Amino acid sequence: MITTSKLQQALLIWFDKNQRDLPWRHNYEPYQIWISEIMAQQTQMDRVVKYHNRWMNSFPDIHSLARASEDQILKCWEGLGYYSRARNIYKTANLLIDKHNATLPKRIKTLLSLPGIGPYTASAIASIAYGEDVAVVDANIERIFARLFNIDLIPGSPEAKREYWQKATALLPKGEARNFNQALMELGALVCRPKQPNCSVCPVATHCLALQYDLIPERPIPKKSTKTIPIKMATGVLLHQGLVFIQQRLADDVWGALWEFPGGRMKEDETAEDTVVREYMEETELAVRVDSKITTTIHHFTRYKVTLHCFFVSLQQHESDPVLHAAQEFHWIPFEQIDQYAFPAGHRKLITFMKSNKLA
After folding, report:
1. Do 64 and 178 sit in the same domain of this protein?
2. What is the pTM of this model?
3. CB crowding 239-263: b at 16 or more within 10 Å, else e
4. Which residues are the active-site residues?
5. Is residue 223 in a domain?
6. What is the extent of the structural domain holding 53?
7. Which of 39, 47, 78, 185 has the most beta carbons within 10 angstroms of its beta carbon?
8. Hey, how many other C-beta atoms are within 10 angstroms of the C-beta on 180?
9. Does 268 map to a domain?
10. CB-count exposure of residue 199 (10 Å: 0-12, 13-18, 19+)
11. Max CA pair span of the chain
12. Integer distance in angstroms from the first to the last C-alpha of the chain?
């Protein structure tokens, strides 16, 4: 039988001795907690620390964040993916300036009214930054509870989510929300891992029903594997009079407001070279010819594996001003300035290849 007070005490003692030295834990400043929580969604902690430090060097407070341009925000976020999160941070920063005296509110209801802040993030900010007595539930905590209480509900189902939040609220020790919530998340990250959990060092192993019944591999109930969908695409780097053509994606598009080289998905009856020529005409009304192959990059996002064929192209016409049909803005820039702009993963890999091989 699980004894709540002993479980709470064991977790808090373990966290005090084993917590990682993370930059936002030095002073628990609300702004830093907020940014760290948004960055940590579906991202490994070592990358979060790297990006968090870079972010704080660029935007040390809400005022500096609100003064920045969206391009600067996206550039600083580049590589983390899920760029809508960065845009929501930017929107929230401006709302905080306008309506909240440049301060993150404590109240859950108010936090939930801000762009990009859902129930988990609101609870994390309230409890970790302000010490409010509210529970949190993230993927780590769901996994711990599924094992600790031997919960056989389907992960992600409304019933499972209700059960996990009820358990988290019931377990929360009054006045200890900051440390207890972090202890649960830390336990899931370091000990009660998705694969190969280290039950021998778990501070709550004696309370764990799944361990008692030898059901650790079955908790949470394993999800059905999702099939990877392959996508073949092609893009062209257009050079003209020593400059490179780039365009900015539409704000409501996939990777909205990021910069790119024109291109798109290959049709079944097309070569990659044909795709580049067609996409340039459809997107910019610029007639181009393919000069040479640069490289092929591969990147993954959500369920997709994207193979991107990359080429150098040149104009077949005198006119160099495009008519944009799939972008909101364009620039002709020296290649040396390209690092000032944020690109999607496949195009960033292409740029890195070109730089390392001195191709532009």
Report:
1. yes
2. 0.91
3. beeeebbbbbbeeeeebbbbbbbbb
4. 37
5. no
6. 4-218
7. 39
8. 23
9. yes
10. middle
11. 80
12. 67
